[in-house]
Amino acid sequence: MIARVAALPREIRQYLLVTGNYWAFTLTDGALRMLVVLYFHQLGYSALEVALLFLFYEFFGVVTNLVGGWLGARLGLNRTMNLGLGLQVLALSMLLVPVAWLSVPWVMAAQALSGIAKDLNKMSAKSAIKTLVPAGDAGHQSLYRWVALLTGSKNALKGVGFFLGGLLLTLIGFQGAILAMAVMLAGVLALSLARLDGDLGRAKAKPKFREMLSKSRAINILSAARMCLFGARDVWFVVALPVFLATQFGWDSWRVGGFLALWVIGYGAVQAVAPRITGGTAGRGAAIAWASALTALPALIALGLEGQLLAAQPQLVLLGGLMLFGVVFAVNSSLHSFLIVRMARSDGVSLDVGFYYMANAMGRLIGTLLSGWLYLAGGLVATLWVSSALLATTVLISLALPKEA
After folding, report:
1. Model-level pTM?
2. d(CA 164, CA 171)
3. Beta carbons of 216 and 358 less than 8 angstroms apart
4. CA–CA separation, 295 and 364 (whole Å)
5. pLDDT digits (tens, 9 = 90+) for 281-306
6. How far apart are CA 271 and CA 379, in angstroms?
7. Rg of the chain over CA atoms, in angstroms?
8. Do 116 and 358 form a contact (C-beta atoms < 8 A)?
């Protein structure tokens, strides 16, 4: 097996290593999110308090993508990727303190480090693809397939991480789970330090700090659409949904973690085959059409939960609607991920990708905060209506994309 890998072209070997790093990181990231949500809910934290635990995680994601794209272009994507792995090990280690020390500020600080780590790792992986795909194929089917495969496989692993988090919490407890993940990720970091190319993604001309903000109108528009798209997902998925499943349906940690894991695994699988679903069409028209289709789904779920005929079967309405939402959202996400890599400049690609994922992180931050607050104010249905409104905004923004996009 090792000999076969060694015989592969350099670009393929580096792609496999980048993807492996991304997979390992995503596994711990998904498990950590589920562990924190379920464990602190068990300790009696309200939905809003749980949401606040992720405040710095999402906030520093905004900052990290912006600065990280600049660092990746100046120092190389290998360094930003390895820095992300190291910071995640440190963040996990912070949660190994005695339970009495796990105050809200301490956990928020650990989540801040984890947020920085996650976005350094993601920005590095997504940017690296453009440098590894042969230049003649960039912007065409080859790039679309590579981006879809990386994005889809990552999200499938995040789903496995959700499942793993619920399972480990049940079997070995919170701190046992954290220790196991920290040890595993430290091994991945050691391999990455030894094998990842030193000049991966480094720009030929060193970009200045002021160049972090995108000067491209098309990328600014796509970034704004991405912000609303991911805010629309996280406003009901991050906090409101798992708390609703636990309190209204009476599900235990195992069932909540297992279901959300299966959902994200399916979501990732759809992302990976998005080029087949869209028939290879991945431009402005496809982005608008799929965002329009998604807009109606949260509103329909909300109407189903409120309606007289369907409210008697809320599990069927919610879980069935969530499955359909996952399929359509996955295609939207893959289309956006491809468009940013295609539209980004070739030299210093991480600058444009970092700016774009800064907007992604801003959407997640807005969605996470709204998720806890809206759930307390109006329940899950309120978060679904806001989700639909954000998706409608995504469509309107996407209309401004250039026709050649």
Report:
1. 0.74
2. 10
3. no
4. 17
5. 667 888 899 999 999 999 999 888 88
6. 30
7. 20
8. no
**253 vs 149: CA distance, rounded Å:** 30
| Tokens 């407890």, located at residue | 173
pLDDT band, very low/low/confident/very high, at 10 (cuts 50, 70, 90): low
Q: Is 16 helix (H, G, I), strand (E, B) or coil?
A: helix
Cβ atoms of 332 and 222 within 8 Å: the answer is no
How far, in Å, CA of 247 to CA of 256, rounded?
11
**Residues 291, 225 contacting (CB under 8 angstroms):** yes
**pLDDT of res. 155:** 73
Give the whole-angstrom CA distance, residue 401 versus residue 405: 7
CA distance 141 to 84: 30
Under 8 Å between Cβ of 288 and 398: yes
Residue 3 has pLDDT above 50, yes or no: no
Evaluate if residue 276 carries a pLDDT over 70: yes
DSSP character at residue 210 = G
Rounded to 10°, the helix 314-343/141-171 angle is 140
Rounded to 5 degrees, φ, ψ at 133 are -75, 135
Using an 8 Å Cβ cutoff, are 79 and 202 in contact?
no
**pLDDT tops 60 at residue 367:** yes
DSSP string, 305-357: HHSTTTTT-HHHHHHHHHHHHHHHHHHHHHHHHHHHHHHS-STTHHHHHHHHH
**Burial of 10: CB neighbours in 10 Å, binned 0-12, 13-18, 19+:** exposed
Residue type at 133? Answer: V
List the end-to-end C-alpha distance of the chain, in Å, as a whole number: 41
- Is there a contact between 350 and 124 (Cβ–Cβ < 8 Å)? yes
Which residues lie closer than 8 Å to 305 by C-beta, 6 or more apart?
A: 311, 314, 317, 318, 380, 381, 384
- Measured CA to CA, the distance from residue 60 to residue 39 in angstroms comes to 23
CA distance 271 to 147: 9
Q: Residues with Cβ < 8 Å from 51, sequence gap 6 or more?
A: 238, 239, 368, 369, 371, 372, 373
